[in-house]
Amino acid sequence: MALILSHPVPIQTLRMHSPIPIEAAIARVCAREGGFVLESAARSAKFGRYTILGFDPVETVNAAATADPIGALSARAGRMPAVRAGKLPALPFAGGWVGFITYEAGLSIEDIEPTAADDLGMPLLRFALYDCAAILDHVEQTWHAVGIDWEALCGVSSLPESVEDRAPIADRLQHVIDVLTADHSPLVTHDSPIVARPRARMTRAEHAAKVERIREHIHAGDVYQVNLTTRFDATTTAAPLEIYRRLRAANPADFSAFIAWDDKAVLSASPELFLDLRGRRVATRPIKGTRPRTGHPAVDEARRRELLTSEKDRAELNMIVDLLRNDLGRVCRYGSIHVDSDGELETHPTVFHRVATITGTLDEGRNWSELLRATLPGGSITGAPKIAACKLIRELETTRRDVYCGAIGYIGLDGALCMNVAIRTIQMSGQRLCLHAGGGIVADSDPDEEYEELQAKAAGLLRALGW
Length: 467
Fold this sequence. Notes:
The protein is α+β, with helices and mostly antiparallel strands. It has helices at residues 22-30, 69-77, 103-109, 150-154, 169-181, 204-219, 240-250, 297-309, 311-329, 368-375, 386-396, 447-464, and strands at 11-16, 36-39, 50-54, 59-63, 96-101, 125-130, 132-137, 142-148, 199-200, 225-235, 255-261, 264-270, 273-278, 281-284, 287-292, 338-347, 351-361, 383-384, 407-412, 417-421, 425-429, 432-441. It contains twelve helices and 22 strands.
């Protein structure tokens, strides 16, 4: 496919007319250095329209041990030129930073020191800068190659050092096309288990005891809600991409992600939007309230009605909505924050969820880094009040969460941001594999019901592993 570019502009795009199966595109891109996937595997028109793939990063920020990981990322990102929003095509991403922020990085904002051992060796955050990407529009069923023309953006004499040796934009876009359309032997996904059954770090009895401890703190007035999670551990010889392909098939979600480097990988299939920033418009969509699906229409309909009419679940969601309104209020224009929905019911592969939508307008002079500082760690995966809940979580959970309950996504060179809450996430370090599941505990939580909810949330991940 020939690539012809017209007058120089900072962003160049090319629409690809060749039909490229998404599974083949993922395999081809992830075989390249620094290959990543930010995928809308559920493919809903509203929140799951686009899949973004890229490889060959310009540079990487890897904050392993710092008191201010967000500051480290912001400082590095600030060295790169900004792209004016008016110059962007009608696509969500043209170039920028792709990666994750851990739960513990969020704790550092509130000066809360983790006490659990750092046994996976995950960095506090990791982002790589990409100046080209392939984007699939699931609504129009079209592929686009998009990239930054550094010379048009900066001028030849003022190129940042890290991009001085980058190939011209035409060559980079053509390389994206060549990778996507290259011959590739189809990968076979097996249904058999690829790990021994993951071992939970918390038994049912231990979980029940911790639920009761949280309820005691609630009755004492220390907290109103606390998110309690547990980790499941296993070992595997399977490659991260094989596990991701199984995960996206078993648990399709609006915010799936594949990020791998060295001997580590993050594989996620999250239904929850943490933050979406476009221009000055901010949106967040917390999830609270869950019922497991059975596959039996009558039973599932009864559970849908139960979730919609549950006063406990509505109160749980309302607490988090209030918390997130306050978080956004730190950086949004006064009077701009609105609750667009106080609890829609959504259907996911293994569960039903209640989801709220809150929007606001970022203050003039504020940017994505201040938005992250105001909202991390996310309220839906901590509790209320947030700081007290985080400190109680630190007492009760014996392992780090790492990327789980952090955030995964991108920060564009135009200042846009889109990140999901990293639930339904598998983390790999060498042959070690772990996943987490949990839920919000309130005053009238039943320990047995909470444990069953935890198992339901883990079901999609366990199914991807063959269990």
